[in-house]
Amino acid sequence: MYEDIPAEKESSNSIEREDILRAQQFLKDTYNKELRENGKVTPELVKENTDHAERVAENARWIAENEFLDINKLELAAICHDCGKLRSAHPGGIDTFEHHITGARMTYEFLRDLGKSPALSEEIRDMIMAHSAIPFIKRWADENEVGLPEPTTPEEFALRDADLLDQIDIWGFKKIIEIRQMPDGDFYAQDGGNIRKAMASAEQSAKEAKEQLHTETAKKIAASYEKRWQKLVDALRDAEVTSIEEFREVFQKILSQSLDKN
Ligand SMILES: [Fe+2]
What we know:
Blueprint: H1 17-36, H2 43-66, H3 71-80, H4 99-113, H5 118-129, H6 135-143, H7 154-168, H8 170-180, H9 186-191, H10 195-212, H11 216-239, H12 244-261
Fe (ii) ion binds next to loops.
């Protein structure tokens, strides 16, 4: 008796390969919108954060595959995890401490618009909500008496691990330095523009990241990243780097050495 009433389109409970491409486009559009707002977001910031999302997505794929989790779901969450980070109205163009909240909401809306089920959209939203529970942000949350959700599910731990791994990767290390050395940024003011302080901060993040890894797969990946990371840190110390240009030179040297070996 209800034949004339069109059935409501069923929402999908899975992430497909084409959704990965849509998520990449969503991230690009989101960052470009902030760039166009003529605020503090610069093309350099967009590039650093887009590259970071790509590396985290690759880490997420490896972890998901080896921990028997849904690869597409992890990869999509990784692409979107920092979509709330670049904010034109925010001082310095970066929201470090609350971007997980904005990003979780934006990603939830993106997924619902794509026709994903509420349950799947909520699951990915919660993964993004829990990715910021890292020492650097926890210290801020404690000082400001703000709650910070911790990962509880295998997928939530896997996403945070994928993100943490980037801090042990030389490219992620470089990202922290480049961002802390951007003269208009908040971190530049915090460091007084001193690159040694930026390097000390990136070094501390890498050490804390290693301690916090949860999955066995991420711990294995970290061991391989760490060798190249340590080489870079040692070379920077030996070179007594005092400027971003000198930092980039040492970075390129370490990069070409490791490429020669492969
Ligand atoms: Fe993040």
